[in-house]
Amino acid sequence: MLTNDQLYIGGSWTAPSGTGLLDIVSPHDQSLLGRAAQALPADIDRAVAAARRAFDEGPWPRTAPTERIAVIRHLATLREKRAGEIAGLISAENGSALWFTKAGQPGLSRQANAYLKAAEGFGWEETLAPSDPAAPFRSVVRREAIGVVAAIIPWNSPFSAAMAKIIPALLAGNSVVLKVSPENSLSMNLLAQLLAETGLPEGVISVLPADRETSEYLVKHPGVDKVAFTGSTRAGRRIASLAGEQLKRVSLELGGKSAAIILPDADLATVTHGLKFASLLNNGESCIAQTRILAPRSRYEEVVAALKELVESLGVGDPADAGTFIGPMVRRDQQQRVLDYIRTGVAEGARLVAGGPEIPAGLEEGYYVTPTLFADAENSMRIAQEEIFGPVLVVIAYDGEDDAVRIANESEYGLSGGVWSASETRALDVARRLRTGTVTVNGAPIGFDGPFGGFKASGLGREYGATGLGTYVELKTVTVPVAAP
Question: Which pLDDT value is given to residue 284?
Fold first, then answer.
């Protein structure tokens, strides 16, 4: 059992302001995994004050970009050396199947490398060519750090969400207060240990597990200049409102209800193999999961039958077992939320093809849900419009490509989506018409060089690569007189 009775504030391990430790329990069998200190508003005050001093008076924002790049490269190397330990901790805390947490480790390396590549070629300071050659001045554009960044991440993929924010924020020269979910106290304490080895100056970064009330205190804190958030759309709206009152910079990566459009010429074996991962990765607890399956009416029952076979074949059980594809939900309330949605789907009149609200036999002690498939669903149903965040798929029929695009776009969300076709040209034509931030064709993975984020209620701003790095800088223009010839 792991125990951590301290908090990582400003680069040092220190006693928390509160007493008592939070029990971290396994979602598989409720066994005790460890205990960890949790931050309270007084700890937020200390972390923000340290970050403020580090930014206003310390060396970090004034170091050369090459020096900051070297520190982040070191952090990436340290993480790679402990990839197996990280995967195991996240799996134990979250209930994510170990295959998923292990498979995500190389992705973390690619994510870091994309940011490092972007930083190396970033226009930290550029002299603009004048539009009027006779102008008596030249313009110098600088990209400078914003200040103190509050990075707030969810529990479902903690290392990926954390690195997506702290890497670009630090590369740009900001100080960071990283607020993490209580469920991830153990794995995020490991992240803090890695950060302690990087040589970052005092005060530059803190890692604080805390509840929602303490998160809101951080968002409202007058010492914070920018809030970077990943989480639910409901929470994102609240954060945007609070940040707007103080005109804080804000970036939001929010929820999704992504559609997978299966075109009539798609190879169904390829589709079902791809949707196993695109729709059901991380137990379905993923904002990018393609959980609305749009099937041509001419092949509808064929698609439903193939997906039924897929869903019923998934191994459900202990996330540490090699044969497990779907583990438990992260908490009891999340399990009940997903079960309630399944009951709602039945009540709405959708056809229950596989699964249902019954907990898998023999797994009653954990927070398990039986993978579930609905057919004969209307896009207006709650199970087709609301983010369930669990292993529940809904198959909707369409008539022609225009109808498929219409259905896909009839959603308040616009984070991700997929198109499946034997013709890449045809798939790209459909992808261009979707109102969503990311579209994958035939199961291609999401890359880290291009921007990632959402349309509509799926968020504001973008992460990854040069675009993501750009969300952590302010633009300054300096005009300099040009001597007369």
Answer: 97
Q: Does 485 map to a domain?
A: no
Give yes or no: residues 148 and 43 share one domain. Answer: yes
Domain shared by 230 and 356, yes or no = no
Kindly write down the DSSP assignment for every residue of 383-400, as one continuous string: HHHS---SSEEEEEEESS
Residue 373 lies in a domain: yes
Averaged confidence pLDDT in the chain:
97
How far are the Cα atoms of 195, 467, 470 from residue 227, in angstroms, in the given order?
A: 20, 17, 14
For 248, the token pair is: 């804080």
In this structure, how many other beta carbons lie within 10 angstroms of the beta carbon of residue 216? Answer: 17
CB 311 within 8 A of CB 393: yes
Tracing tokens 């984070």 back to the chain, one arrives at 415
Nearest to 152 by CA among 162, 142, 144: 162
Catalytic site positions: 253, 287
pLDDT tens-digit readout, 189-248: 999 999 999 999 999 999 999 999 999 999 999 999 999 999 999 999 999 999 999 999
In this structure, what CATH number is given to the domain that contains residue 342? Answer: 3.40.309.10
Specify the residue for token string 């039924």.
Answer: 308
The reply to whether 232 and 315 lie within a common domain is no
